Amino acid sequence: MSALASLGAWTRESGTVTYDVAPLPEDAPAAFTIHAESHPSGAPSEYPAHTHPLHELVWVRGGTMTARVDDLLVTVPEGQGLWIPAGVEHAGRLTADVELCDAFFAPAALPEPLDAATTLVMTPLLESLLLHLTRRDLVPAARARAEAVVLDVLEPSAPALDLRLPGDPRIDPIARALLADPADPRDLPAWSREAGLSTRTVSRAFRAATGLSFARWRQMLRIHHALRLLGEGREVQEVSRILGYSQPSTFIDAFHRVTGRTPGAHLATGVRKPRSDVSRS
After folding, report:
1. Would you say 248 and 237 are in contact if contact means Cβ atoms under 8 Å apart?
2. Do 65 and 92 meet the contact criterion of CB atoms below 8 Å apart?
3. Which of 101, 154, 177, 231 has minimal Cβ neighbours within 10 Å of its Cβ?
């Protein structure tokens, strides 16, 4: 069983479509620096754990992406992209009505390769260049010029909203249960009794494995799910209720402490719809 599979399932909406992942894009040229693709999707989508022999940059338009990379849970909102080095196992899920965009980079193409999962700033220039490279009618000289600029403008973003998954067999069942239902109201003593461990043992195990207290870890997990739900177009009050908060004000305060802004401010940034004007052939 892979490391990702052992961490259990995350919540899955009704109607989610699960895609098989090919090891390489089928229409990639025999030799390339960057191969870009774009895939509109109406239904919530899920990609099981897999690896690529190429570096991958993946981002979405019109929603939110959640990924598991090694032992990290990473939520990537619109405006950011996730860089995944070649050979690193990852899985992903997308909210409904998004456009999934990705670009594969030949490992030898980067003069200073990014060797760890990293969030990148999807500037309008970078996104336009990569979407331009989805075209299959570009002549080699035009493709080479665009690829050269892409390599110049790759820029890490501020730290992503990521959450380390425990990987400790004593507390992994707790993490799996909360991944499946982040609204579960049980407190630390209740979870400790469920695991047959002392509260002190569970508390220390969460701190050692994730760097966070149990309460902070669960709060972070709920905010990951909140970003997904908000990306689906849910109202703040509904998200608060789904995640088990007694009052919307409590949820708003927790969201602000984790992200630095309120859910309303997050929604006010606007969610772009998937593009339909990108030329592809």
Report:
1. yes
2. yes
3. 177
Looking at residue 89, its pLDDT comes to: 92
For the record, the structure tokens of 190 come out as: 């209740």
Q: 31 with 140: CB under 8 angstroms?
A: no
Across the range 130-150, mean pLDDT stands at 88
> Does 267 have pLDDT greater than 50?
yes
With pLDDT > 70 as the criterion, what percentage of the chain qualifies?
82
Three-state DSSP string of the chain = CCCCHHHCCCCCCCCCEECCCCCCCCCCCCCCCEEEEEEEECCCEEEEEECCCCEEEEEEECCEEEEEECCEEEEEECCEEEEECCCCCEEEEECCCEEEEEEEECHHHCCCCCCCCEEEECCHHHHHHHHHCCCCCCCHHHHHHHHHHHHHHCCECCCCEEEECCCCCCCHHHHHHHHHCCCCCCCHHHHHHHHCCCHHHHHHHHHHHHCCCHHHHHHHHHHHHHHHHHHCCCCHHHHHHHCCCCCHHHHHHHHHHHHCCCHHHHHHCCCCCCCCCCCCC
* pLDDT per residue as tens digits for the range 183-219: 999 999 999 999 999 999 999 999 999 999 999 999 9
Task: Name the packing angle between helices 199-210 and 214-231 (round to 10°).
Answer: 60
pTM for this entry = 0.77
Residue 144: which residues within 8 A CB-CB, separation 6 or more? 33
CA atoms within a 13 Å half-sphere pointing along the CA-CB vector of 246: 1
At 30 the pLDDT is 45
